[in-house]
From TrEMBL:
Enzyme class per UniProt: transferase
Entry's cofactor comment: Binds 1 Mg(2+) ion per subunit.
Positions bound to 4-amino-2-methyl-5-(diphosphooxymethyl)pyrimidine: Q41, L42, R43, E44, K45, N73, S112, K141
Domain of life: Bacteria
Cofactor section: Mg(2+)
Taxonomic source organism: Dyadobacter luticola
Protein's recorded name: Thiamine-phosphate synthase
C-alpha cells in the first residue's frame, strides 16, 4: 500500500545540481523549502551509489524539521538506505509492482506518464501521484517525448483517478495554468534551482499558483 493523501497544490522541487549554478546544493534546497517548497525529489544521474546515499541522508536530515518529504528518483536501494519517504520512477525504471513490494508500507510512489497509454496503464497501480511529463518543452531534460501542453493535461485529468503532478517548463508565468487544469502537484527544477534567490523564487511560484 502507498499513501494517496497528498493535499492539493504542493510545490515539488526536483533537484539538479548543475542547475544550482555552482552554489551550495544544500543551501539551494533549504532556501527553496523556506520559501514554500513542500516536497523534494533528489534526482542524481551521475553520482556513485555511495555518494547518492550520503547526499540523500544529509538531505533527509535537513528536510526533517520542515516536515518535507524526500523522494528519491529511480533508485529504491538509495531510498531504503537513506530511509527516504518514497521513490519516483519513469517508464523505463523499475516496474510499479516490484517497487511496491520492495518499499515498506506508507511510502510515496510517483510515476511519470509520457503517453496516453501510460496514463491508462497507471490506473492499475496504487501510486501516490502520476506525473504528466513533460508538461511544456524544457531545456532541462532533452530525452523527452512530445510535451503534453495544457490540452494534454486536461485529457489526463479526465482519464486518470490519480493525484496529478505536472513537470517540465513550469515557471511563475504558467504555473497557474498548470494548477487550474488538473495538476495538484507542481514540480520544478530550473525556475527554483537556477533562480538568483531560490527562497524568493519558491515564494513567488507558490503565490502565483494560487493567485
Ligand atoms: N522530467 C520531465 S521534464 C523534467 C524532468 C526531470 C525537467 C524539468 O525541468 P524544468 O527546469 O522545471 O523545466
Ligand atoms: Mg527515471
Amino acid at each position: 500500500m502507498t499513501t494517496n493523501d497528498t493535499p492539493v497544490h504542493q510545490l515539488y522541487l526536483v533537484t539538479d545540481e548543475p542547475a544550482c549554478l555552482g552554489r551550495d546544493f544544500y543551501w539551494v534546497v533549504e532556501e527553496a523549502v523556506q520559501g514554500g517548497v513542500t516536497m523534494v525529489q533528489l534526482r542524481e544521474k551521475h553520482l556513485s551509489t555511495r555518494a547518492f546515499i550520503d547526499r540523500a541522508k544529509r538531505l533527509k536530515d535537513i528536510l526533517l524539521p520542515y516536515n518535507v518529504p524526500l523522494i528519491i528518483n529511480d533508485r529504491v536501494d538509495v531510498a531504503l538506505a537513506a530511509n527516504a519517504d518514497g521513490v519516483h520512477v519513469g517508464q523505463s525504471d523499475m516496474h510499479f509492482d516490484m517497487l511496491n513490494e520492495m518499499l515498506p508500507e506508507g511510502k510515496i510512489i510517483g510515476l511519470s506518464a509520457e503517453s496516453e497509454e501510460d496514463v491508462v496503464e497507471a490506473e492499475n497501480f496504487d501510486i501516490s501521484y502520476l506525473a504528466v511529463s513533460p508538461l511544456f518543452d524544457t531545456p532541462t531534460k532533452t530525452d523527452i517525448k512530445k510535451p503534453w501542453e495544457i490540452a494534454g493535461l486536461q485529457w489526463v485529468r479526465k482519464n486518470s483517478t490519480h493525484t496529478l503532478a505536472a513537470i517540465g517548463g513550469i515557471n511563475a508565468n504558467n504555473i497557474r495554468q498548470a494548477a487550474t487544469n488538473g495538476a495538484e502537484i507542481i514540480a520544478i527544477v530550473s525556475a527554483i534551482c537556477s533562480a538568483p534567490s531560490p527562497y524568493e523564487a519558491a515564494f513567488r511560484l507558490k503565490s502565483a499558483m494560487h493567485d
